[in-house]
Design a protein that fits this description.
This protein is about 80% helix and about 0% strand. The protein is an all-alpha fold and about 180 residues long.
């Protein structure tokens, strides 16, 4: 990471500010991966972060967009007395909503950066989405050990709305591909 930061940012005051913002944002990203239990995949995901966020012109835009979330997480962590892995894990869990919001924005930027890669990658991504939906269907509509009784009415409504959105978007895209 040090080499990436050194080669990506210059030595001007603005560059130093951008580099420090990037370091803080990257630290929050690392904490979010720890909270998700990324373990052995973190090195690969870290390469994606460097390649598709830090080294892109959108890095400053990403840092700006997550700035408030990063500050909230920083404040939350400072309120906890972190003495080891267990207290760090609890602090991350207590800030779950902020980390989820951060990850949603990160995923959006990462997806946009990867869209430029190639058509085969795009088709592979669509195939993964289709497979995930088929897996959910084959498991009775939920994943793993989830049961409908565990969902609130609001959560069920949110799922229905998202599935409806997927259907509508898929139909629109199907027509667009058919007419291309």
């Amino acid at each position: 990471m040090t080499k990436t930061l050194r080669t990506t940012f210059g030595k001007s005051e603005d560059s130093e500010v951008n580099k420090n913002e990037t370091k803080l944002t990257f630290f929050v990203w690392v904490l979010s991966r720890i909270g998700q239990g990324a373990g052995g995949t973190m090195a690969y995901e870290g390469r994606d972060y460097k390649k598709n966020i830090i080294k892109k012109k959108e890095n400053n835009e990403f840092n700006s967009e997550v700035e408030d979330i990063v500050e909230d997480i920083q404040d939350d962590l400072l309120e906890h007395k972190i003495t080891g892995a267990a207290s760090l894990s609890k602090a991350i869990t207590d800030s779950k909503d902020s980390f989820e919001e951060f990850n949603d924005i990160y995923d959006e930027y990462l997806d946009n950066a990867k869209k430029d890669e190639n058509i085969d990658s795009f088709i592979k991504d669509i195939s993964k989405i289709a497979k995930k939906l088929k897996d959910v269907k084959s498991q009775g509509g939920l994943r793993g050990t989830m049961r409908f009784e565990q969902l609130s009415d609001d959560q069920k409504e949110a799922l229905r709305n998202q599935m409806r959105e997927i259907l509508i978007t898929s139909e629109d895209l199907f027509e667009e591909y058919k007419n291309a």
